[in-house]
Amino acid sequence: MNSPTLVGSLVFAAVLVVLIAVVIQLMMIGWRRRALRQEELIGHLPDIPDEVGTATTTLRGVYVGSTLAPESNERVTAGDLGYRSKAVLSRYPEGILLERIRANPIWIPQSAISEVRTERFAAGKIAARNGILAIRWRLPSGVEIDTGFRAGNRDEYDGWLGEAA
């Protein structure tokens, strides 16, 4: 029953499983180290004000992540900024509120926004026809980041693009 081919196949499968487990563990260690390095750089995010005006524009879609500006590949992993999630993006006179499912909301004060534009590529995600709304803003620590959002209906981006700072 135990032919050399069967034993060899089982040994190969066991080695392959161990190798995959080691690679996944190394990826997780790298993610945690990057998050620790960025925590000092990022600092604390702005708090949501107690009172804000009426939302002027709202989009439903997906938060694709944040990157350190101007590098579109330097993904921010500090806190829960590195996790993609469904979200609602709302524009207020005082700023922008990004409410994410199973993650803390992100408040972007109007005074911190330097640019709102569309991109084809952000935070390791690619979208067709400039499908990602990218908001460049300055954190209280002084670091600029790009926050990416992909709406379900990309035709609604026009209401966001002319209202940067």
From TrEMBL:
Domain PH residues, every copy: 42-163
Segments passing through the bilayer: 6-29
Taxonomy, superkingdom: Bacteria
Keywords, comma-separated and alphabetical: Membrane, Transmembrane, Transmembrane helix
One protein family per Pfam: bPH_11
Protein name in the entry: Secreted protein
